[in-house]
Design brief:
The chain is α/β, with parallel strands linked by helices and about 170 residues long. The protein has 6 helices and 5 strands; from the N terminus they run βααββαβαβαα. The longest helix is centred in the N-terminal third of the chain and has 20 residues, at about 25-45. Strands 3-2-1-4-5 form a 5-stranded parallel sheet, with helices on both faces.
Length: about 170
């Protein structure tokens, strides 16, 4: 009988950069950022990694060192949270994300941020291509249209607060 591995989670906080947040309706942005901060605090409380993922794009003038590149100041991130910088929607593609997660012993990923129909969804698919169990985080993803986000949460069975809290309380 095959022995199952213990859950070793990480939270991926994707593209909550000033540039991208300009395209999100204010009410959706405020609600999602509140939930993202709640999950960041939850992961820290249980001593699991929070990984920041940033997008760069010369086409859109999104460059490191600019205000548009930075995460919103309201995000509860710290300088100790590892950073991955990507140029493609899938955060695994041509980055060291897989290497970082393996170094930290993570096998289960929770994804939040932008965009539910873009980079978050592409990273969710990429996670499966790298043999991770991955979950979208309900109420902590967003896109330029709330209906799109709601549909993604339903279609991909986004994980809610109680389930995530239970998993973290019982993970190693």
């Amino acid at each position: 009988m095959e022995q199952k591995s213990k859950i070793k989670p990480a939270l991926l906080v994707i593209d909550i950069q000033n540039f991208s947040l300009k395209f999100i309706p204010d009410a959706d942005k405020e609600a999602a950022l509140t939930m993202i901060n709640l999950y960041i605090d939850m992961f820290r409380k249980h001593k699991f990694p929070v990984i920041r993922i940033y997008h760069v794009s010369e086409k859109h003038g999104l460059k490191e060192g600019t205000e548009d590149f930075e995460f919103t100041k309201s995000a509860a991130i710290t300088s100790q949270d590892p950073i991955i910088i990507k140029t493609y929607p899938d955060s695994f593609y041509k980055t060291d994300l897989d290497k970082l997660l393996k170094e930290k012993g993570c096998n289960t990923l929770f994804l939040c941020g932008l965009s539910s129909v873009g980079c978050v969804l592409a990273t969710w698919m990429g996670a499966f291509n790298h043999d991770y169990k991955a979950f979208l985080v309900k109420d902590a993803i967003m896109s330029h249209k709330k209906d799109y986000t709601t549909n993604i949460e339903i279609m991909f069975d986004a994980a809610g607060y109680d389930m995530i809290e239970f998993i973290l309380e019982n993970a190693e």
